[in-house]
Every structure is written in structure tokens, then in C-alpha cells.
Amino acid sequence: MSARSGFSLVELVVVLVIVAILAALAIPRLTDSETRASWYVDQVRAGLRHAQRQAVAQRRNVYVEVLPGQLRLCYDAGCSTVLTQLADGQPYVLPAPSEVSLVTMPVFWFDALGRPQPGGQSIVVNGSAITVQAETGYVQ
Questions:
Q1: DSSP for 99-133?
Q2: From CA 67, how far away is CA 59, in angstroms rounded?
Q3: Counting beta carbons within 10 angstroms of the beta carbon of residue 9, is it exposed (0 to 12), middle (13 to 18) or buried (19 or more)?
């Protein structure tokens, strides 16, 4: 008789089941930081749009303060009066996840017409720039 080489069907199925279980556990952990980073970029864009809408609706300046670990929306330059969120009344502060780098920049604001002052602005989050157009205040 000749010796047989190779794997049996049972062995192959067991290996595939183990690989599938490991993949189900490992893949979400690998993409979790990327998901949080892209989510935060979207949240910053939404926060800037909210600041512009509030400035126009309330006919007053709304300040955007970008710090290394967070973005805050305020009604005054020193951020002593923080804008509140509509849903829960909490201060509008967006803390950055630990894997996200947020470049500090000077405080800018939206005037009562929704224009950013001074001029156009650009916020860098994880290497991608969020631009606020000078005349229109459009956030892209």
C-alpha cells in the first residue's frame, strides 16, 4: 500500500472554522481606529456647519476654538459661554479620540451673516484639511 499525503475534509473544515473565528475577532479591532478617525472628521464638519447656522439664526458671533484634543463652539472669544447642543443641552465640545491628531489654530468665528472671520479657515484633522470658504462660510 502506498502512503497517502494531504489533509482530510474534517481537518480542512476545522481549520477554516478557526480562521473564520479569528478573523471575526481581529478585523473590527484593526479598522476601529480608522472608523473613529473618519467619524471625528465628519463630526467636526457638522460642528462647523452648526456654528454657522447658529450665528445666522441668532444674529451674533459664534466662535470656534480648536485645541489639541478638542473643538469647542462658544459665544465669546474666551469661550466662557459655550454653545449648547440642541439634543441634550450639553456644551458643544467635540473631544478628539486618542488616535486623532487635531492641529491647534487661532480662534475664528462666524459673524451674523455666516461668514468666517478672519477670512477663510482650514482645520487639519489627521492630515486631512476641512476648509471653510471665505465669503460664503461653506464647509468642505
A1: T--B-----EEE-TTS-EESS-EEEEETTEEEEE-
A2: 26
A3: exposed
pTM passes above 0.70: yes
Tell me: the pLDDT tens digits for 47-59? 899 999 999 999 9
- Counting every residue, how long is the chain? 140
CB 62 within 8 A of CB 83: yes
Query: What gap in Å lies between CA 120 and CA 131, rounded to an integer?
Result: 7
Taking the C-alpha atoms of residue 75 and residue 91, their distance in angstroms, rounded to an integer, is 11
Q: Angle 95-97-99 (CA atoms, 0-180°, nearest 5)?
A: 145
55 grid coordinates: 450665528
Domains identified in the chain and CATH numbers: 9-132 (3.55.40)
